[in-house]
């Protein structure tokens, strides 16, 4: 039987025919739909197994999978008949085995395909997974029985293992087939199963996220069998390139795949993803790529409407797209805060419930927030021939979109997000696929829709379903975690956010959520740099900054960062309030945040900033009270607190902007009456002691006589002209703010403390008193009032405030300790000690009481019990420090006791450790440490510490307190000891600048001037300026001491001793006399030295001038000499040039005569031009002449010889500086009558002359020296045969050899 495939047709010939006669021919596109027809034909002619398989594959290629399987099943069933089976076996045993194996392999492959469909889409196949698994096992067992090692069975098993997620075993199967294919020598056999092995290895590598290896395998598969590698393999190549972010290669592979199979929906979907990825990477092509992506996605949906991936992509596109409504007639109007009106035709498809709206008034105006459509109602009547519908939205429309007149306001643009289409596409995708990844994507999209519609519970359900289908889906996990965060289920939310963070460690929003949750649950303080990096743009940025600021404010070392956190939170809240839909004043910064900022500024020493934010805090409270539109005090019949101090103006009160009425002076003094007849009741408006402004002058109300008459007093009288003509002057009264309420008590107390530190004690006392009126049990106010009175020296008033505090609470330890301090200051030591002992007896662990006792013993140690009192002081300080090792007061006290005992090293270590541990009261510790350095004569360290402490006070806003001035005086004492009088005087002057009334500083300044004068008088080698400076200082010191000696001051003030001032005054007077005498001597000495120095300078300058003139003369002489030599050289050069021209002219004139001359004449010329050397060897030369005369009949004269010599060489060397002898060529060319004397040297220049010389001939004649030698030989004739006659050389300017041997050597070298 012969089967052939020609032009797409198949021939089936009967086995009984030896020729092609009765045969059946069919074409692939004409296969019968009923496979039994073809099966009857094949059975009738006993067609070979190969024909059965080819026919079944044609059914498979055309999409008839059922006919494919049934046709192959028929031949398998037919083989159950022993006769048919025997017939096939008898025909060709080898062909039988090969054909039946191919049929069973094809059935196994079909069973594997059905198994895959049953696993992923059970509705598409009639049987279940177990049935197809059983069939696959039967088919493979049959093949194994026939052929033990069949490559196709290994491939099928490998793909089956992929479906079972057993990638390791699948890779082993594919690797085995691949190795067998590489070892096989037949190229055809390789193509049979090598392609399948490479595809399988590529699938396994891709599943293991080895995209490079997978790409390599897929490419090799295409190269191994390009025909079998259809659109699917090229799509796999594109998918690998997409994962590797090689978008251009992926696009090329997909284009080839679509060219092979235009209906490949997977390739179109992947091409859409490639365009989206390109849009993210290239912003310039973003719009174009998004448009192309949507077109590809739409095309994929048209090709395969049931493709779930396409449906999900369309859902995503609609979710992220806003569609602008177009109104052909009419327009859109905003009716009220919840309703819009728009034409019905424009609202048919998109404006439906559960869609989103955005409103825009104009092209340049920003779009509004998102609104959810709750209902769409048609309007009953038509307006201008257009049917309108009313759209109701859930959220409130901002006031800027509404009309002020109440009429519908037009809006330019209306945008809609079609969430209904998103839900439809996502639900269709869920119904079309069983794949978990696709189901997870659909659930996530539905969760986003529910989240947009503000249905958090439904959104969480969809997110959770997506996580069940795809546990690694980070987007769903992030959405679910956000909903749990809103529900305050922090533990589960943190777990999900950390899971997302493992997959995306660079995501800032996830990092911010994790940081927020850890701070909330575990009080974890995040690094400030990391916080500053991830907080901007976070949804809860303000809350995150607030939370981190609250965690940091408890640690003094973190106060700086805590302040930055609160400031950033304030900025976020203000920005959110300004960008919100409502008015900016509706949402403001909380007074608690402003108060925390003020407290942190105060702790960092920024007193002015602390006062500023404390005022803002109280004003924020006033704003909140006004927003509530109620006043508890007025409801209870209470009046607002009225403050009098001007420092509180603008914080607790202000003045009425307009006068409440007009007043005119009455008949009595300080009497005022209403002049404009207004109905203002002064008795109800004012009370005794109130402050009013009359005519711009502040008055105090003494008495309210009636409703229209009052008596006020003021230091300034009202000008009569202001109230002339009966017009009167305006009366303005105070308007109290509504911020002195129960909720602002803490803020008011903090503001009073700041006023106290700024030195506004009157305002602080007024605030404390008002707070006590409102809350009589506010113990801190009593204590602060007593401390202020003590500082002012009002000890009795301070005792009154403390007694009132103890009357409120008799066991108050703070009040008792303050009373003890008051007794100690006033000198009542026994009562002070009783107060301290009382507190210690009640509580042995009260650190303040222990410190008070320690300070008491240290301050008052004296007499015989001084050492015992220091020990007691040390014991109390040590006890406090032992209980709390971070107590700075105890550490400072221990250091002071050790320093007082003389243990300076121990004291220094104590202060140093306290300073390094960043304890409070660091300025006091640094000051005491500097004192210790000063006692140890370590002046450099002490001065640096004093300077650092003074700068610290300046930075903290306490530069004008007593301590900075004291630091400057301490630095002056160190500088005085080091004899740096100018620096010491500057330090004391800085102290006086801070406190000009400090008499001790004036005394110290005068003492420094006297010491400076004494130092100058002790030193002999002082200049007049130094003496003059010391004199001026002594003069000022004399005046200061004179003034200080006459000042009377209190006896208990230990400023200075008046006797010492008088003594210093006397010493300054004597010093001035001595300084005046020394000044005269110094001036005379400096005058003499100056004149002597001036004479020395004049002599030195004269010497320098003479040397300079001599050098100039020498330089001029050298220049002249050089110029003379140059002129001489130029003269010689001109002579040489003239001679050359003359000789050239002679040669030209005698050229015809030389052509007729005989060689003998030339020899004679050569012989006569030999010079002295030829005459010295006359005999030898005569013999040579007689022998050579016959050959020189046509001689040449000297001009012809010169002509030839010049024609044979490019230049003539007329001598050089290195060789004084005459060159051989010059001797040979000399005229016959010339004598060998110095005339030639004078003419051409000898070697001793400094003029210019001719260039060396050797360099110019190296190119071709042979022609010149030939011409010289021809000119010399036979005379040139003798080596002793003449030396013509090789062109170099050499001296003539002094002997025959030397001349021979020269000739040899020239040859």
Description:
The chain is of the alpha+beta class and 1311 residues long. Helix 33 (813-826) packs parallel to helix 35 (847-859), helix 35 (847-859) runs parallel beside helix 37 (888-901) and helix 42 (981-994) runs antiparallel to helix 43 (999-1018). The protein is extended. Mean pLDDT is 77; it is low at 1-22, 582-586, 631-637, 720-724 and 1157-1311.
Fraction in beta strands: 5-15%
Discrete helix count: 55
Query: What is the alpha-carbon Rg in Å?
Result: 59 Å
List segments where confidence is low: pLDDT < 50 over at least 5 consecutive residues: 1-22, 582-586, 631-637, 720-724, 1157-1311
What assembly state would you assign to the polypeptide chains in this entry? single chain
Spatial strand arrangement across the major sheet: 4-11-7-8-9-6-5-10
Helix fraction, binned, reads: 55-70%
Which structural class fits the helix and strand makeup?
Answer: alpha+beta
Q: Give the integer mean of the pLDDT values.
A: 77
Globular, elongated, flat, extended or rod-shaped: what is the shape? extended
Distance between the termini: 103 Å
Total strand count, please? Answer: 18
Reported for the largest beta sheet, the result is: 8 strands, antiparallel
């Amino acid at each position: 039987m012969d089967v052939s495939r020609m032009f797409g047709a198949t021939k089936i010939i009967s086995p009984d025919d030896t020729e092609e006669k009765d045969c059946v021919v069919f074409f692939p596109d004409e296969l019968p739909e009923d496979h039994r027809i073809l099966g009857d034909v094949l059975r009738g002619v006993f067609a070979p197994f190969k024909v059965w398989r080819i026919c079944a594959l044609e059914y498979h290629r055309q999409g008839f999978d059922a006919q494919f399987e049934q046709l192959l099943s028929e031949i398998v069933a037919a083989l159950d008949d022993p006769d048919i089976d025997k017939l096939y076996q008898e025909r060709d045993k080898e062909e039988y085995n090969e054909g039946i194996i191919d049929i069973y392999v094809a059935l196994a492959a079909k069973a594997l395909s059905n198994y895959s469909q049953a696993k992923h889409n059970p509705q598409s196949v009639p049987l279940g997974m177990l049935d197809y698994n059983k069939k696959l096992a039967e088919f493979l067992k049959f093949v194994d029985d026939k052929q033990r090692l069949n490559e196709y069975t290994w491939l099928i098993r490998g793909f089956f293992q992929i479906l079972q997620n057993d990638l390791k075993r699948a890779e082993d199967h594919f690797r085995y087939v691949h190795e067998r294919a590489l070892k096989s020598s037949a190229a055809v056999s390789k193509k049979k199963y090598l392609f399948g092995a490479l595809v399988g290895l590529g699938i396994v590598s891709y599943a293991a996220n080895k995209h490079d290896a997978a790409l390599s395998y897929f490419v090799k598969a295409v190269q191994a069998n390009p025909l079998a590698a259809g659109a699917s393999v090229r799509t796999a190549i594109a998918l690998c390139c997409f994962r590797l972010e090689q978008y251009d290669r992926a696009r090329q592979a997909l284009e080839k795949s679509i060219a092979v199979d235009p209906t490949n929906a997977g390739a179109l979907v992947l091409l859409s993803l490639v365009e989206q990825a390109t849009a993210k990477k290239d912003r310039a092509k973003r719009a174009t790529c998004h448009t192309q992506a949507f077109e590809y996605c739409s095309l994929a949906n048209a090709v395969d409407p049931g493709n779930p991936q396409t449906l999900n992509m369309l859902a995503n596109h609609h979710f992220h797209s806003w569609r602008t409504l177009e109104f052909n007639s009419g327009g859109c109007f905003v009716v009220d805060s919840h309703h819009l009106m728009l034409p019905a035709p424009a609202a048919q498809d998109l404006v439906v419930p559960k869609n989103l709206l955005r409103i825009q008034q104009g092209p340049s105006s920003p779009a509004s927030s998102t609104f959810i459509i709750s209902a769409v109602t048609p309007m009953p009547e038509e307006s201008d021939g257009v049917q309108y519908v009313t759209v109701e939205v859930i959220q409130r429309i901002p006031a800027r979109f509404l009309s002020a007149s109440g009429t519908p306001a037009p809006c330019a643009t209306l945008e809609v997000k079609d969430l209904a289409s998103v839900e439809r596409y996502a639900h269709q995708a869920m119904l079309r696929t069983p794949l978990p990844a696709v189901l997870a994507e659909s659930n996530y999209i539905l969760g986003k829709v529910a989240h947009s519609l503000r249905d958090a519970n439904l959104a969480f359900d969809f997110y959770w379903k997506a996580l069940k289908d795809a546990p690694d889906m980070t987007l769903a996990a992030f959405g679910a975690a956000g909903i749990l965060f809103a529900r305050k289920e922090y533990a589960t939310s943190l777990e999900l956010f950390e899971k997302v963070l493992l997959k995306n460690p660079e995501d800032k929003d996830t990092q911010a959520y994790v940081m927020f949750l850890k701070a909330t649950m575990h009080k974890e303080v995040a690094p400030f740099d990391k916080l500053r990096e991830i907080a901007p743009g976070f949804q809860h940025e303000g809350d995150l900054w607030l939370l981190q600021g609250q965690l940091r404010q408890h640690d003094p070392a973190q106060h700086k960062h805590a302040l930055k956190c609160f400031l950033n939170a304030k900025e976020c809240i203000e920005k959110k309030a300004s960008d919100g839909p409502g008015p900016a004043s509706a949402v403001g910064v909380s007074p608690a945040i402003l108060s925390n900022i003020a407290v942190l500024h105060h702790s960092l020493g920024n007193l002015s900033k602390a006062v500023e934010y404390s005022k803002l805090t109280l004003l924020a409270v006033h704003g909140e009270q006004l927003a509530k539109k109620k006043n508890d005090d007025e409801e209870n019949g209470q009046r607002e607190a009225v403050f009098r101090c001007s420092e509180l103006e603008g914080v607790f009160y202000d003045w009425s902007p307009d006068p409440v009425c007009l007043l005119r002076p009455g008949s009595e003094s300080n009497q005022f009456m209403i002049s404009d007849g207004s109905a203002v009741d002064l008795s109800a408006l004012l009370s005794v002691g109130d402050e009013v402004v009359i005519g711009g002058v502040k008055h105090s109300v003494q008495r309210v006589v009636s409703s229209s008459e009052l008596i006020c007093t003021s230091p300034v009288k009202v000008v009569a002209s202001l109230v002339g003509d009966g017009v009167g002057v305006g009366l303005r009264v105070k308007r109290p703010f509504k911020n002195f309420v129960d909720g602002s008590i803490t803020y008011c107390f903090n503001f009073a403390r700041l006023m106290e530190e700024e030195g506004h004690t009157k305002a602080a006392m007024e605030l404390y008193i008002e707070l006590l009126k409102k809350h009589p049990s506010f113990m801190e106010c009593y204590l602060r009032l007593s401390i202020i009175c003590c500082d002012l020296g009002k000890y009795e008033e301070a005792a009154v405030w403390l007694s009132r505090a103890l009357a409120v609470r008799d066991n108050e330890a703070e009040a008792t300790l303050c009373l003890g301090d008051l007794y100690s200051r006033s000198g009542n030591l026994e009562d002070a000690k009783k107060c301290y002992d009382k507190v210690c007896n009640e509580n042995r662990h009260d650190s303040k009481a222990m410190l008070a006792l320690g300070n008491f013993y240290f301050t008052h140690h004296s007499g015989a019990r001084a050492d015992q009192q220091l020990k007691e002081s040390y014991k109390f300080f040590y006890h406090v420090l032992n209980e709390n090792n971070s107590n700075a007061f105890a550490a400072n006290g221990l250091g002071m006791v050790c320093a007082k005992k003389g243990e300076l090293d121990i004291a220094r270590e104590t202060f140093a450790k306290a300073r390094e541990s960043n304890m409070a009261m660091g300025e006091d510790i640094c000051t005491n440490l500097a004192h210790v350095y000063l006692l140890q004569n370590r002046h450099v360290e002490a001065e640096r510490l004093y300077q650092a402490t003074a700068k610290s006070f300046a930075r903290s806003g306490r530069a004008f307190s007593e301590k900075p001035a004291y630091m400057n005086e301490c630095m002056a004492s160190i500088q005085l000891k080091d004899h740096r009088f100018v620096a010491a005087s500057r330090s004391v002057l800085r102290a006086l600048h801070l406190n000009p009334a400090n008499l001790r500083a004036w005394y110290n300044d005068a003492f420094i001037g006297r010491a400076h004068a004494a130092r100058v008088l002790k030193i002999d080698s002082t200049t007049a300026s130094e003496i003059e400076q010391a004199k001026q200082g002594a003069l000022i010191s004399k005046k200061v001491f004179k003034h200080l000696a006459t000042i009377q001051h209190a006896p208990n003030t230990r400023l200075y001793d008046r006797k010492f001032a008088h003594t210093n005054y006397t010493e300054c007077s004597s010093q001035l006399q001595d300084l005046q005498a020394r000044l005269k001597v110094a001036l005379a000495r400096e005058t003499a030295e100056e004149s002597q120095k001036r004479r020395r300078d004049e002599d030195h300058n004269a010497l320098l001038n003479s040397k300079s003139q001599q050098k100039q003369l020498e330089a001029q002489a050298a220049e002249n000499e050089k110029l003379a030599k140059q002129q001489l050289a130029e003269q010689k050069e001109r002579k040489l040039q003239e001679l050359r021209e003359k000789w050239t002219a002679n040669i030209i004139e005698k050229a015809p005569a030389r052509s007729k001359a005989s060689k003998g004449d030339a020899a004679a010329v050569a012989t006569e031009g030999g010079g002295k050397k030829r005459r010295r060897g006359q005999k030898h030369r005569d013999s040579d002449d007689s022998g050579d005369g016959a050959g020189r009949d046509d001689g040449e004269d000297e001009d012809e010889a010169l002509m030839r010599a010049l024609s044979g060489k490019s230049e003539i060397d007329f001598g050089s500086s290195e060789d004084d002898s005459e060159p051989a060529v010059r001797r040979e060319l000399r005229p016959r009558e010339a004598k060998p004397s110095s005339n030639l040297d004078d003419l051409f220049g000898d070697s001793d002359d400094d003029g210019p010389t001719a260039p060396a001939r050797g360099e110019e004649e190296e190119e071709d020296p042979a022609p010149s030698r030939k011409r010289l030989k021809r000119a010399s004739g036979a005379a040139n045969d003798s080596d002793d006659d003449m030396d013509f050389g090789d062109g170099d300017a050499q001296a003539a050899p002094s002997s025959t041997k030397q001349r021979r050597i020269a000739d040899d070298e020239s040859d």
